Amino acid sequence: MIDAAELQVAWLTLQQMLHDAWHAEWREVATRFFPFVMLFEMPVQAAVMLGACRYWWRNRNKRSAPRIAPRVTCIITCYSEGADVKKTIASLTEQLYPGQIDMLAIVDGAHRNKATADAVQAMLAAVKHRPMRSLELVAKTQRGGRVSSLNQGLALARGEIVLALDGDTSFDNDMVRNVVQHFADPNVVAVSGNLRVRNARKTLVTRLQALEYMLSIHLSRTGLDQFNAVNNVSGAFGIFRADFLRKIGGWDSGTAEDLDLTLRIKKYFGRYPNLRIRFEPRAVGHTDAPETLPQFLNQRLRWDGDLSYLYLRKYPNALRPGLLGWTNFLAFLWTGLFFQLALPFVVLTYMTLVFWLYPAGHVIGVLAFVYAFYWLLTVAMYVQYLLQLSERKRYDLSFWWVTFLFPAFAFVTRVWNALATMSELFTRSHLDSSMAPWWVLKRTRF
What we know:
This protein is of the alpha/beta class. It has two domains: 4-57 and 327-441, no CATH class; 72-291, Spore Coat Polysaccharide Biosynthesis Protein SpsA, Chain A (Alpha-Beta Complex). It contains 17 helices and eight strands. An eight-stranded mixed beta sheet has the order 3-2-1-4-7-6-8-5, with helices on both faces. The longest helix is centred in the last third of the chain and has 32 residues, at 326-357. The chain is globular, with a radius of gyration of 23 Å.
């Protein structure tokens, strides 16, 4: 237990560090207190925030107006969504888009997921009477996994633009209109949509994830988009030029198919530097996030393990400037290999050394100082997001108090990332995935 004397030492340590940070030269502060943050983490955050400012300045008076209205095909991957798939289909049917929207609901393992297939079947009549809208139920008897469903949908797609969507994700009614406009540029081959947490107010865990989505998806990808360095086309909400997708062979078997496809697309950027992957912040999808901490950790164990699988096992020789181009090579080196793989281990090592070398009171003071710094960074990003990007300002403002807890949440996420990486390296955890049956993953080369 921590006694009063240790708390007094902690308070004095924090006061001294704040005093030194306020009165010392900026170079001395950066060197003494958090050189790793200043040299590696802050440049990325600064680039993201500057990119978001650039987007806001360019689009502050712009109104979304469709310049083109091509036929689009929505591949809705379904497995165990049940009645929730009706929300997805209804939100696509009601899109404010003048062009044709075809919906292919691919139900994987339809015999085992009869409730989902029946929910799609119940929507057929309602969609049939809507002009420029169509819905088809594609019932796959054999369970083949998410990638199998996506490629089945691509084979049946008749639209010029293909939307790969989760069966439990619903959308704002201007989503298609906003994403399609990017394909007026022939160099755009993919667009990543924006995601919000639909059940954000359910628990503290969902509230924390809602704030994470605002900052790590909405704000960060908006900033990265300005440098043509969008780091991932979300699996729940990705939009592609159908011809390009077919030329590169569609989705690859295995897991983490969204990042996998993003990396495969970017392997053409070195040879064709005009190609672009865009992020559209005004195209909003709503998805349910894990509601309990065990559910959240289980999800991130799969996500973070899959990242390690792709970066270290499947594509170690592909991450080079000759294929990706220098911008995306540096972005993946920094935000991928460093932030997602190396930094969690650095954090763990730092924490271990601090607790080993210093008394408890001093450690608590140091950690309070670090926590205060990350809270201020979170607040700065949150305020920028509210002022420049949020399309639901009053709703998003209700999460202001979550910023106080967010640095702790980010720390837990980073530590768990390190454990997920170790799990993948030693147990090949990507082979144990809910996204595909084991017999599919076992047949992959990696």
